[in-house]
Amino acid sequence: SAPGRFADYFVICGLDTETGLEPDELSGENFEQTPLRRTFKSKVLARYPENVEWNPFDQDAVGMLCMPKGLAFKTQADSREPHFHSFIITREDGSRTFGFSLTFFEEVTSKQICSAMQTLYHMHNAEYDILHTPPTNDKDSCSSTGDCNGTAVSKLQRFNSYDISRDTLYVSKCICLITPMSFMKACKKVLEQLHQAVTSPQPPPLPLESYIYNILYEVPLPPAGRSLKFSGVYGPIICQRPSTSELPLFDFPVKEVFELLGVENVVQLFTCALLEFQILLYSQ
To answer: Where is the UDENN domain positioned along the sequence (predicted)?
Structure first.
């Protein structure tokens, strides 16, 4: 039987510098987009522990759900705020595993990756020139607009562009906790504090590995009807498990549902649920 651990795995997903830039067809690749707007395959770079027998690690599922849109590239001109999301893996026997993922951006240090991105931009611009160069016999229209030398095209190309000599390239990366129960708020705090420790100029009091080991091996699941308080990198983290006589654990803010869907839609959804209608939520 599974031991009562708070978390089973710590996972890192991101760019595999050995395989390089691979288009991610599952996320709806569009080669008409500029290279910085395309999506590339992400991979599970590391996980700890390697495997636990009560919860076998599903590398394909975890990798896809940690970064469902694949890798994203940005430059210093783009916003690079971290974002958090959760997911559920449901197995054939109906058992569930919960995942909590914090995605952030870090600078690309591999010269090969930066060169590959620059090459993709050269190819994209060359194709753009071929498709958008006006016919040679259209001199009158050129002279009237003053764009015979392609100045309008070059302006479009420079928008959302990448120049290896001028720009700093950043790529998305993800740290994730795989847990047996859906303690969303606690997991979010753990991941945010770990990320803060990595990006802070001052190192944390203990090595990062010790905090990860603690959350995987020394923090237990709280018993039903009890709360649990344990130490994070920078402060305490608290979670509470409902008793068997209470409603099931739901650790997500209901406020966000109203913000995303609106009051009228939430009331209609609640009505449909009471009437046992089938409900489909469609999202990009």
So the answer is: 24-284
